[in-house]
Amino acid sequence: MNKKYNGCSVDDCDTKHYMKSFCIKHFQQVRTWGHVVSAEEKLEHYRARRRSPLAGATFKKGHTPWNKGKKAPLSECITPENHLERARFQKTMQKLIFIRDNFTCQFCGHYGRPLQVDHIKGWKDYPELRFEESNCRTLCMACHYYVTFKRKIPEGIVWGHNFSRKAI
Question: What predicted TM-score, i.e. pTM, was given to this entire model?
């Protein structure tokens, strides 16, 4: 290291010194690493950090990862094509169903609650009936949850797509 007056003491660095005869960049390297770091050393360090800590790891014999072979619930339903169909349904059919049912839940008769459109014959099982008005009805969130899961909605749960009259 060459000592330069009022400049960084690292060769090939013409930056004004910051502290202890180093520019701010080299001073931080010395403080962090203990020495000035070369470009190759830095590159190797970042390559090593990028490697997965579990790369090449094996599990004990007889033990399998907790999620091996499991699928997310309704994973067959959520495909890009299906997602587009749901968006198209919400834009075209949902408002028609709400208007037809006078923004009222068809089970409990409440008006003005967060509303959802329920398919009488399921979206997944009957793709040909997805856009049939006769296969749809307006339900509030609590009734829709009850119809789907055969139990009351847990307190504090917001389930499904919430739509109210204000949203339309």
Answer: 0.48
Could you give the CA distance from residue 74 to residue 31 in angstroms, rounded to a whole number? Answer: 53
Say what the pLDDT of residue 106 is: 92
SS (H, E, C) the chain: CCCCCCCCCCCCCCCCCCECCECHHHHHHHHHHCCCCCHHHHHHHHHHHHCCCCCCCCCCCCCCCCCCCCCCCCCCCCCHHHHHHHHHHHHHHHHHHHHHCCCECCCCCCECCCEEEEECCCCCCCHHHCCCHHHEEEEEHHHHHHHHHCCCCCCCCCCCCCECHHHC
What are the distances in angstroms from CA 147 to CA 51, 62, 119?
A: 48, 41, 10
Taking only the tens place, the pLDDT of each residue in 117-144 is 998 998 888 888 888 889 999 998 889 8
For residue 21, give every residue at least 6 positions away whose Cβ sits within 8 Å of its Cβ, in sequence order, or none: 3, 4, 8, 9
